[in-house]
Amino acid sequence: MTTLADLAQEHVTDLAMEPYWWRSLPQETEGPEQIPEKTDVAIVGSGFTGLSAALTLAREGRSVTVLEAGRLGLGASTRNGGQVGSGNQKFRVATLIEMMGVQKAEAMLREGVAMLDHIGALVHELKIECFFARCGRFRGAVRPSHYEAMARDMEDLRRHAQVESFMVPRSEQHREIDTDYFFGGSVLPQDASLHPGLYHAGLSDAAAKAGAQLIGKTPVRAVQPEAEGFSVHTDRGTLWARDVIIATNGYRQNFNKFCHKRIVPVTSSLIATAPMNRERLNALFPSGRVYGNSARVFSYFRKAPDESRIIWGGRVGRNAGEMDPRSYAHLASDMLKVFPQIADVGVTHAWSGRIGYTFDEFPHLGRTPDGIHYAMGYCGTGVSRSTWFGRKIALQLLGKYEGFSEFTGLRFPSHPFQTFAPMAVPLFEQWYRAKDALEK
What we know:
By secondary structure, the protein is an alpha/beta fold. The chain contains 11 helices and 18 strands. The strands form 3 sheets. Strands 1, 2, 8, 9, 10, 11, 17 and 18 form an 8-stranded mixed beta sheet that branches. An 8-stranded mixed beta sheet has the order 5-6-4-13-14-15-12-16, sandwiched between helices. A two-stranded antiparallel sheet has the order 3-7. β9 and β10 (229-234) form a beta hairpin.
């Protein structure tokens, strides 16, 4: 078996190049031979956004057809680390206030808390068995100055959004994590975790039971406005829809220029270790939280919820291809910097997923100039954001006041060099990694 030490040196013999979470997905089934001729709402994308929107619309009596290019849930919704936060981690509170003003910033922060609460309530309501837990999040400071900045930000978060947190100095961090790598860290005790594969399966089942039709292996090639609706052209025929929602996030929006020009796909990569002795694993993570760090090229990690493994994620490594095990060597190296005592532990799975990044680092929902609804741009905090925005965009489509979001109506910037942005992402990642190393 390939060990962490082997992978770090790119000596790889046997890795499953697919998400660990897929082991728990229902067996893939063939969809209908033909797609329907018409529907009230066509939703492009079967991730958390699309399923949340479909569930909301079907419960309101709309006919809903969800179209997915590959298998249902092929994208980031079944490829992420299963960490669930408030959706406001991209900016420090002080920075958000500088950008938006106090009133708007506080409203955004409160909506972020509502996102987190909503996903917990939905899991409870639908009785989804996905290991959802309010375990809390520890974020380790990779430099002493980062610890001080965290402390100020946590105080601002408490003052402006009433979010509780506490700081853990380096002298006490072993009660949170068995490493000397960090210089202390912060804890958000209400952040959560879940099994993304099982959560997706539960949402799929709920949407289907509500009446939504979920169709995989049906790529959408074009969406054209028509009188009182849209024609949705797929590889399996054309569907007429009164309304269309784009819910693809970091995956293809080529059929819609407006969204395509505003989203940059960024690859996030993960590995899963082999099962470990449970006592040894618990000693590494005594508080049982989800974890991250303060580096520019950050890592995020946790215990697997269903087996005694570690799930470790970070940005893309060398540009050898998502199916090349050598592309994941940097994750093993990063893990061994934090936990050098587990070099002998095996690695079984490696996979990647695409995050939808925006040029302003805010998520966006609204309508394109030709009337297509969209919700996307979660910038790496997609589990809670996507579930929330899927419901919100569905309610907006229905014309309901409850569909209001503080993120509705934000200017959605494009960039003249967007076409080249995906190619530049790996270069920026390497530059940020170099800066992280130089500052230590």
